[in-house]
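Consider the following assembly input.
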Amino acid sequence: MTVSLTLVLIAGALFGCGVTLLLSRSLVRALLGVLLMGNGVNLVFLLASGPPGRTPILTEADKSGVPIGPEGISDPLPQAFVLTAIVITLATTAFTLALAHRSWQIGRTDVVADDVESQRTHERAVANDMSDSDFVSTAEPAPPEGPDTEFIEREGRDVSAEEAEAETEEVPGADDVPAGVGETGPGPEGRP
Amino acid sequence: MNIDPTVLIPLPVVIPLVAAGLTLVTSRLAWIQRAISGTALGLVVAVSAALVWLTDHGDPMAMVVGNWSVTEGIVLIVDRLSALMLLVSTVVTLGVMLFSAGRGISSDDDEHDGEAPLPIFHPTLLVLSAGVSTTFLTGDLFHMYVGFEMLLFASFVLLTLGGTQDRVRAGINYVLVNLLSSMVFLTAIGMVYAATGTVNLARLAQRLPLLSEDTQLALQLMLLLGFSIKAAVFPMSAWLPDSYPTASAPVTAVFAGLLTKVGVYAILRTQTLLFPGDRVQTMLLVAAVLTMLVGILGAVAQDDIKRILSYTLVSHIGYMLFGIALGNQAGVSAAIFYVVHHILVQTTLFLVTGLVELRAGSTSLKSLGGLIGIAPLTSLLYFIPAMNLSGIPPLSGFLGKVGLIQAGVEQGSPLAYVVIGGALLTSLITLYAMARVWARAFWRDPVEEAPQAPQKITAGVIIPTALLVACTMSLTVFAGPLYRMTDAAALALLERTPYITAVLGL
């Protein structure tokens, strides 16, 4: 099957632009990205229907001498697919815009926010915070009965602090991440 | 009177849709809404049970919607796998609907939420059920996309019910990721149509082997990508724990039970029917073991019961993918058994979390404690499914895992043994995560921080949860017949001929 290169390139460009927009922080831009991708996919369906320029419907009078079948008329099935996809994209647009408006009503912003709990877990991991762990006792420390327990107690308290310092020193990049992530929150509001 | 049994096939889609319309019309009268919803879902459970019986004692049944011919129309087909999936998913939806009706609130939960203009929980739940049934019943790839979109949109509405800040944030993430997966799936359908000229699954099964190996691989990977995002396979699983915990308890329960399993079903159907062979076996095995381990390690880092359960949901998808990746009859059979088990157990656990939230006001492990004294029945209802999920014999989690491990040993490759090791390790860590929740929320003494005003748990919410726990325990009793049925289903899936002749003989 030969297809038009222009259409293929346009579909690819639409899909690529759509993906780029989908990655942005503003919900409305992400929605525009989804719409572009949707249109790119519709073009793929159009390409799948075969060469352009064929008759849409054949009547009885046309059948004489005109080949019927996939070569004769243009394929209606991908056009039906495209129509369904367009309607679904319409509903998607309506819902996502309502969601963006609600987000604006609540917080005066429409950013795609990060999950707060995930960020907290990440910060705890970076700081090597074991305070919630089952393997570090949070009960009151047992009275030191011998050299062993003293060692373990001291190690449990001191090493974690040292390790936390060492962690943050050895991995300077890790310090940037929580701050960087936090900055993207108020950032997009300033952009028009 | 001779009734053609194929008249039963579209009912699991038609009944919920009609009921959705009726509940929308009667939205001012909550008790009529619940009655219509309950009746509709009860009818669908009965129809699904009849379909299970019919397909188990005969061939797959197929029909074309609108009586078109097979080449132009949309085919609906029920075989053992579809019937089993239908039965389990409708039972779970009925249980969740009874739970939310028993809570006494027809729309959304929190008292301090924004009020919805119409109580739309029941209509949306019914549309979700219709979408899930569509996906299980269809024999047409584009119709599967339509079914996915139906259930997706219902899930968007259910997730953001109430419009609070948390839910809108989670909803935005969820909407965008799922729209991406829909786009990928739609592109894959376009490419499949361009390559073969049809989207009917049975005709595709005949035409796809005629293409070149590279084209087949490309199509297989595109479809796999779209379904894997829906099924939350690593590395496309990060969206799930971000969005599921913020919804209300019955909503999370129905999501956890149904939505990811629809993705797993789609992977199973396309991999066995359209792309037989082991082209992507290594990749799927690696993805399975990574999903298992990364998911469960995420669970042990969490503080909130709902988040822990969301991560275990991701992790156990890896088990199902393991069975599918193995590709032998034992593997596919164990995977189907595990899907049935996991739908029931995960939904039940989320419903129990809803009970905990009602009784203690929060699900964060920091502020929970001593629930075994305050709510002994809830503790029991947590303990049984939790041990089931961790794979303690004689419960069905153990049986499913044994089946998967046996299938892996039968396959025998080194990678299969690595995945078996990962599976065992994941089971152990699941046990740790479940025991941690038990130790902190139920077993230890109550903490000083007083929770919000607890509500009394009425019989209306306890009974559906207890019934679902009884269903999970019944899987142990009926494991023999169930395994026999999944073995037969797996054999039919791998042979492909029963399915193809049922459709093309129309």
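The radius of gyration of chain B is 22 Å. Ask yourself how this observation constrains the way the partners meet.
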